[in-house]
Amino acid sequence: KMAAAAGAAAAAAAGLWSEVNRCGQNGDFARALKSVNKILQINKDDVTALQCKVVCLIQNGSFKEALGVINTHTKVLTSDVIAFEKAYCEYRLNRIESALKTIQSASQQTDKLKELYGQVLYRLERYDDCLAAYRDLIRNSQDEYEEERKTNLSAVVAAQSTWEKVVPEDLGLREATYELCYNSACALIGQGKLNEAMKKLQKAEELCRQSLSEDSDVTEEDIEAELAIIHGQMAYIMQLQGRTEDALQLYNQIIKLKPTDVGLLAVIANNIITINKDQNVFDSKKKVKLTNAEGVEHKLSKKQLQAIEFNKALLAMYTNQADQCRKLSASLQSQSPEHLLPVLILAAQLCREKQHAKAVGLLQDFADQHPANAAEIKLTMAQLKIAQGSVTKACMILRSIEELQHKPGMVSALVTMYSHEEDIDSAIEVFTQAIQWYQQYQARTNHGCCVFQPKSPVHLSLIREAANFKLKHGRKKEAISDLEELWKQNPKDVHTLAQLISAYSLVDPEKAKVLSKHLPSSDTMSLKVDVDALENSHGATYVRKKAGKLTGDNQQKEQGQGEVKKKKKKKKGKLPKNYDPKVTPDPERWLPMRERSYYRGRKKGKKKDQVGKGTQGSTTTGSSELDASRTASSPPTSPRPGSGAAASATSNVIPPRHQKPAGAPATKKKQQQKKKKGAKGGW
After folding, report:
1. Domain 174-213+220-258 belongs to what architecture?
2. Which regions does the record annotate with the repeat TPR (predicted)?
């Protein structure tokens, strides 16, 4: 019976293995897995069945379950038997370090392990080792996967050029596929050859369309999805070239396609955020969600992920999310303590909060802890001091940067700032230190040689700028040594010689006379210029009037006397309409009316001014004031105090401006009122 049962089990197992073989050839790994599980029920430690189960799980994408089977049966599935499958599962589960250890611990390095080893090194960004691994694979293998290996090799070279700034070597690869063209374009972008890279990408797009259009099952949408990564690089080149509008349009077109590559979407969203900067922050907040998609961290390089995190911190600052900005910056600083950007972002956030002193202190601490990056940090500190108005302190910070002290740009900035503060002595000291540095540098390079050596152009330029600066600020005595040095380097420089003579004229006139003998004579200095041709040239700033033909006496007058300017006729001043030459003009006519001695003030007591004032039925003036007989005989009002005797002397004289034309009615208004009254009485 036992023999019969064993025979039946063997027959069942044979049938199951046939089923597994048939399903494997058809690619139906789900059915194959069911048959394998039945075999393992018969014999749970069957090594072949366990291997088949792991392969079926891998083919079905169940990498975690496959790795669980391997780890559960370690006694049966040793590293020699299942090393590749274990490393591949770890690689697909993004356990890259574990995959590397599994590959390195394998006793025998098969071709499959070497291929996987290259992929693992690429993910770990160990590009030099990866390049060597792929070169060895291409050299020692000949199969149908040679084109894929060359593509991977070109991808490694592109990564080196982009992230490590290594000048790529010519691999001699024939760019027959769009993948190779794309990788070559990426390498050119890393070198800054943007126009060449754009041409490569256009070629890659053409090859991609050709290869995909040959397949009848591929739709236009599939082609556009495949071209998305090429178009993304095209947009990136446009952005680098300053064509931000074109780049933004292409980026948005790619996003509308909704590609499945989360890495591509994250990069495009990040680039759009960099274009928006502190503008259109609402769009940036939408785009930043694409950078947080699941699996992005496994698709991008460390520098790409770092750039995205930096932009997140900056976006938080621009949207006034101070706590979020500090949190992200602190996290970045802990990951990369030597990196500048996290500290600069924190300092910028503090400045937005008007905490400039705290920002400067933060930058100073970083400069003390990381001397290698101190120069850039101190430049930022100086900028903050200038923004606060502390120009002198900013100059002190800039002068503490030893590696930049002698640079022409730094010298120019310091001199300008000291001049703004009217500290001429400090500005001259900056020039002196820079000139001394170049003198010492030249002495070191010449190794103490006594032979005369010409100075470098930068050195001579500093000496000339120092001399001009001293002359401009009246320091001619101090400028003499600089001018002598310049003239010594170029004795034919007439301009420098003239400056030197001018400086010596205040200090040593005799020396100035001696030097003046070196000036060229006036004959050699004269320039033969055709004045007429110069005036008639296209660049003349004025147009000469054509001289008219001169005849007779006019010609003789011009020849004898030259041009005579025409005298302008003096116009007579206008007189007042009521001007009377017999009457003496008022001596006070130029004074305002209120300041004249005969001014009596405004007339008061007019009836029209009093109408409607007071309570109903009452009058504001007494009956005596309304009596016409009393008003007519009342004496004139007395002049204002302070008018003096001059008022009575000139009271009878009517000024010209107050004179009325002869024959004019005295009181036209009163006559009209009388006529009205008469008419009323007539009715």
Report:
1. Alpha Horseshoe (1.25)
2. 228-261
For 630, list phi and psi in degrees, rounded to 5: -70, -35
- Average pLDDT, integer, range 108-135: 91
Max intra-chain CA distance, the chain:
168
Q: Do domains 174-213+220-258 and 418-518 have the same CATH topology?
A: yes
CB atoms within 10 A of CB 188: 22
Task: Please tell me whether residue 577 adopts helix, strand or coil conformation.
Answer: coil
Helix (H) or strand (E) holding 312: helix 302-318
- For residue 268 the two structure tokens come to 């495009």
How many whole angstroms separate alpha carbon 304 and alpha carbon 274?
A: 13
Alpha carbon 212 to its chain centroid, in Å, reads: 41
| Distance, CA of 431 to CA of 473 (rounded, Å) | 14
Provide the sign of the torsion angle of the four alpha carbons 641, 647, 652, 653, taken in this order: negative
* DSSP 8-state code for residue 217: T
> Which ranges constitute the DSSP H helices of 563-625?
607-610
Q: How many angstroms separate the CA atoms of 489 and 633, rounded?
A: 106
Q: Which residue has the tokens 């001695």?
A: 597
Cα torsion for 547, 552, 558, 559, to the nearest 10°? Answer: 110
Residue 592 DSSP symbol = -
Rounded CA gap, 217 and 77, in Å?
Answer: 42
Please give the pLDDT value at position 671.
Answer: 47
pTM here is 0.66
Place of tokens 């003030």: 601
- φ, ψ for residue 543, nearest 5 deg: -115, 125
Please provide the average confidence, as pLDDT, over all residues in the chain: 78
Query: How far is Cα 88 from Cα 103, in angstroms, rounded to an integer?
Result: 9
- Sort 351 into a burial class: Cβ within 10 Å, 0-12 / 13-18 / 19+: middle
* DSSP structure string for 314-376: HHHHHTT-HHHHHHHHHHHHHH-TT-SHHHHHHHHHHHHTT-HHHHHHHHHHHHHH-GGGHHH
CATH architecture of 1-108: Alpha Horseshoe (1.25)
How many Cβ atoms are within 10 Å of 176's Cβ, its own excluded? 11
Cα–Cα distances (Å) from 188 to 38, 236, 430, 593, 673, in that order, read: 56, 13, 42, 88, 103
- Could you report the per-residue pLDDT of 142-190, keeping only the tens digit for each? 888 888 889 999 999 999 999 888 887 777 788 888 999 999 999 999 9
DSSP designation for 542: S
Torsion angle of alpha carbons 235, 239, 245, 250, nearest 10°?
Answer: 10
For residue 180, the one-letter residue type is: L
Let me know if 451 is exposed, middle or buried by CB neighbors in 10 A (0-12, 13-18, 19+): exposed
Dihedral angle computed from the Cα positions of residues 95, 97, 100 and 105, in that order, rounded to the nearest 10 degrees = -100
Q: What is the residue extent of each domain of the chain?
A: 1-108, 174-213+220-258, 418-518
In the block, residue with structure tokens 């009217």:
422
Chain segment 282-320, per-residue pLDDT in tens: 999 999 999 999 889 999 999 999 999 999 999 999 998
